[in-house]
């Protein structure tokens, strides 16, 4: 199929490389019938598989560039380029089918290489990697593919329901935990208010006790001074009993009668001494 579609240089180069691979695949499969040794047939089939992988990569690159240039191309040109891509996909798919036929005839199922795998990190093929087109499938294949797709969709819906249920359960548990924590915070706040009130009362009580202690100290100091004064007066009275400054102090001056008797005795002594 000659290409008469206007292409950019990049698309034209990719298209030429794909066509070269198609010619190489055609020649390679024609040689397969001429090879009698099964080992050589297996080696030839591996080489053809590598070429098909490279062809698949080029078609993906063609599709990527086509999407990037979609806004720059008129709708008619874009449609023609897209048809060209579909042709390359369909052509490659025919060689894939032919490879599977030779592989089955060789009984090489244990060494089968998957051509269109997405790598270890992907579990589902992308839309652009779905090489086998609906136009190349029979009605039974379409029905089987539809049933398989529906089964996968149902399984995905079931998984989504399980995720939603787990999310709801987690949300309920989180809300319950938040409610408990809110109540606990309220109790802690009330306890802090009680502690603050108790500390305030304790501070007032300490101040009152301090004032009472200060008052008691003043009274004790005054009593100490009074006692010291009394002791000093007693000492002075004992040392100098004739001190007139303390004679009239209550409880310290001698009785008046005793004093008069003493004066009389002294007078009598003086009289007798004069005689």
TrEMBL record:
The chain crosses the membrane at residues 219-239. Keywords: Coiled coil, Membrane, Protein transport, Transmembrane, Transmembrane helix, Transport. Residues 147-209 form the T-SNARE coiled-coil homology domain. The keyword Membrane applies. It is a single-pass type IV membrane protein. Its main location: membrane. This is t-SNARE coiled-coil homology domain-containing protein. The lineage of its organism: Eukaryota, Viridiplantae, Streptophyta, Embryophyta, Tracheophyta.
């Amino acid at each position: 199929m000659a290409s008469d579609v206007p292409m950019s240089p990049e698309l034209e180069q990719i298209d030429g490389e794909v066509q070269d691979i198609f010619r190489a695949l055609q020649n390679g499969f024609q040689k397969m019938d001429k090879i009698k040794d099964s080992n050589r047939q297996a080696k030839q089939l591996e080489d053809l598989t590598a070429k098909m992988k490279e062809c698949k990569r080029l078609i993906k690159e063609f599709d990527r560039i086509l999407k990037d240039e979609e806004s720059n191309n008129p709708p008619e040109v874009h449609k023609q380029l897209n048809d060209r891509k579909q042709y390359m996909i369909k052509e490659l798919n025919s060689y894939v089918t032919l490879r599977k036929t030779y592989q089955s005839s060789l009984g090489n199922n244990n060494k089968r290489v998957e051509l269109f795998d997405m790598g270890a990190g992907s579990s589902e093929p992308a839309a652009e990697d779905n090489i086998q087109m609906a136009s190349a499938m029979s009605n039974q294949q379409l029905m089987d593919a539809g049933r398989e797709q529906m089964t996968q969709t149902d399984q995905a819906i079931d998984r989504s329901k399980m995720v939603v249920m787990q999310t709801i359960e987690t949300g309920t548990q989180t809300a319950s935990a938040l409610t408990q924590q809110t109540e606990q915070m309220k109790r802690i706040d009330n306890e802090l208010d009680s502690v603050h009130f108790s500390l305030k009362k304790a501070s007032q009580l300490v101040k009152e006790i301090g004032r009472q202690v200060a008052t008691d100290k003043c009274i004790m100091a005054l009593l100490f001074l009074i006692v010291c004064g009394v002791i000093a007066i007693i000492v002075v009275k004992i040392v100098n009993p004739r001190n007139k400054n303390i004679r009239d102090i209550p409880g310290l001056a001698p009785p008046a009668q005793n004093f008069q008797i003493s004066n009389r005795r002294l007078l009598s002594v003086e009289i007798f001494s004069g005689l």
